[in-house]
Structure formats: C-alpha cells, structure tokens
Input
Amino acid sequence: MTDPRTASASAIRLASVPRSSADIAPGEASFHLVRRHFDVQSFGVNGASGNAGDQLVTEHDERADSDYGTEGHEELFVVVSGHAVFTVDGQELDAPAGTLVFVRDPASLRSARALVDGTSALAIGGRPGAAFAVSRWEQAIP
Output
C-alpha cells in the first residue's frame, strides 16, 4: 500500500482515517486526523463522526488569542453523512448530508451536534492571507 503522506494522490473513506488516541468522553464524536493522515501542509482539515446526540464540533472560536492556537482561522464545515445541527453565535443551522457551513468570523462561537447515527463532518480551515501552520491544539493531541 502506498503511503498517503508521500503519494501523489490517494483515497480513503473518512471512517477509515485514523482517530485521535485521546480519550473520548461520553457524548463526544470520534475525531479523525485527516491532515495528519495525508500530511496536508497548506490548510487545516480534520473530521468527526458520531451518533445521534454526539458533539461533533466542540464549542470553540478561532480567535488569534484563543487557547486553540489557530491564530484567526476561517472554517468551512462539510456534512459528509447523516444530519447535524450547527450553532454559530447562538443561531442554529440545520445541516443534513451535503450541507456546507462557513464561519468567517474567527470570534464566532461554533459547535455542532449529530442528529442521527452515522453522522460525519469535515472541518477545513486557515487564516486568511497567511501561510498555514499546525495549530497548538493539534500539536497537543495524540
């Protein structure tokens, strides 16, 4: 099998992407380390999968001074399967499979919860006008 970190192209189902070895609390989705799997160097991308009621995206912001160390990212979420509800600054956004949710303002609080079993989503992010750097929170997870 070709190493996805060096191959010119490769494919994998999101569910097969290795998951973080960090302990997952009850009610939290599994976290798939997409960026690490492919060794993506130009933007942040990770995934989450879970069942009805699971927290797909933990409530957070992307401010430059936040604990996550993302330095002001915009984020685009893609619901790959199932059905989720995103909450952005208190506004709920219905997100069945195929839905794109874009959060421009790094200060906006965002989170997502799975509404049905088998829900998965990708999160893609980066700081406008800046070269990508791996965030502190990603460096800290096993």
Notes: The mean pLDDT is 89. The first helix runs from residue 34 to 38. DSSP finds two helices and nine strands in the chain. The longest strand covers residues 74-81.
